[in-house]
Write a structure and sequence with these properties.
The protein is α+β, with helices and mostly antiparallel strands. The chain is built from eight helices and eight strands; from the N terminus they run αββββββαββαααααα. This is Crp/Fnr family transcriptional regulator.
Length: about 170
């Protein structure tokens, strides 16, 4: 569905990012939206030199630093390729022209934003749950593909637990 909508009437530039290469760095304004054709990325910020992963994207996902994309202001977030990643990139201007050109395109964008809000609320709930096992189970139920696409060290960071704890939970 996502790819079908995005293929109609919008100019995408295909870019390939090497492992660990940045799509966006902290302090910059994100004026692009990304569709991941292949690969995976992490969205994170740093807190006193510690990385805090807040989101992942992988094949078939739309990724954007939404705070910056919507406000036009710089964001503290980084988007970094976890492995070689191929994305389609569109400018905010072109993307907005696209979604405003057709009611179905606007419905698609509203649905995408609604999904992002729900995902963010789920993420906030996860962070409020103290027990690592519960956080793990919630994410496993919600996003089983995550465990196939993303290395454990990043998932552990996302879940706010040590890689050893994650490993133990996966075994049990």
């Amino acid at each position: 569905m996502v790819e079908k909508v995005l293929q109609s009437g919008i100019h995408w530039e295909r870019k390939v990012f090497k492992r660990n290469e940045f799509l966006k760095i902290s302090g910059s304004t994100d004026t692009h939206i990304y569709f991941i054709e292949q690969g995976s990325v992490r969205i994170y910020m740093t807190d006193e030199n510690e990385e805090r992963i807040i989101r992942f994207g992988y094949t078939g996902n739309i990724i954007v630093c939404l705070d910056s994309f919507l406000s036009g202001k710089p964001s503290e977030l980084y988007i970094q390729a976890i492995k070689k990643t191929t994305v389609k990139v569109a400018s905010k201007k072109e993307f907005y022209e696209f979604i405003q050109s057709d009611e179905e395109h606007m419905k698609f964008w509203i649905s995408t934003l609604e999904d992002l809000v729900v995902q963010q609320l789920e993420r906030e709930k996860d962070l409020l749950i103290n027990a690592p096992g519960e956080r793990f189970e919630r994410v496993l139920t919600r996003s089983p593909k995550l465990f196939q696409e993303i290395p454990n060290k990043y998932i552990a960071n996302y879940l706010r637990m040590s890689p050893e704890t994650l490993s133990r939970l996966k075994k049990s």
